[in-house]
Amino acid sequence: MNLSSEVKITKVKDAEVSAGTEILTDEIDMAGFDGCLIFTTIATANAGNYIKAQEDDTTGMAAAADLADTKVVAASTNDVVWLDIYKPLKRFLRASVIRAGTNTVVGEIYALQYSGRNFPISNLVTNSIIGELHVSPIAGTA
């Protein structure tokens, strides 16, 4: 098994400059996946700066609801904060980063969907995610 063929990697939001506004990611369609790990960095540690997860039954997230107990607060400046939502009850997920405590920068936000039912998964997305899988590479010039 190799991880890059077993998970779908998606950048769901670009980095954001310092501000005090909420950031909502793109919706994540969980059809065909059991779980999703969402992560980002929060540049300023503060009890009012955190990430949480939301879900909805339909695309567009018009009736999005917070998922109970998913609030993760950065303990230190520039911490990576993450949520792992396994077997969500609704089809669509997104992350919300709240910046209510102190204006702060937020890094790019990524989603890793896992336990999929269709393999292999391609993670080559033009102008977004580029990478290669190497199995048993020999030593030499990169």
Topology:
Elements: E1 8-13, E2 16-19, E3 23-24, E4 28-29, E5 35-42, E6 49-56, E7 65-66, E8 72-73, E9 79-86, E10 92-99, E11 104-106, E12 109-114
Antiparallel strand pairs: 1-12, 2-11, 3-10, 4-10, 5-9, 5-12, 6-7, 6-8, 6-10
Q: What would your notes on this structure say?
A:
By secondary structure, the protein is an all-beta fold. It has a single domain, classed as Jelly Rolls, CATH 2.60.120. It is 0% helix and 42% strand. The chain is built from no helices and twelve strands. Strands 3, 4, 6, 7, 8 and 10 form a six-stranded antiparallel beta sheet that branches. A hairpin with an 8-residue loop joins strand 6 and strand 7. The protein is globular. The relative contact order is 0.34.
Count every helix, treating DSSP H or I runs of 4 or more residues as helices: 0
**What value does the Rg take, in angstroms?**
16 Å
Q: What name is given to the CATH topology? A: Jelly Rolls
Assembly status: single chain
Helicity range of the residues? Answer: under 10%
| Residues in β-strands, percent | 35-45%
Number of domains: 1
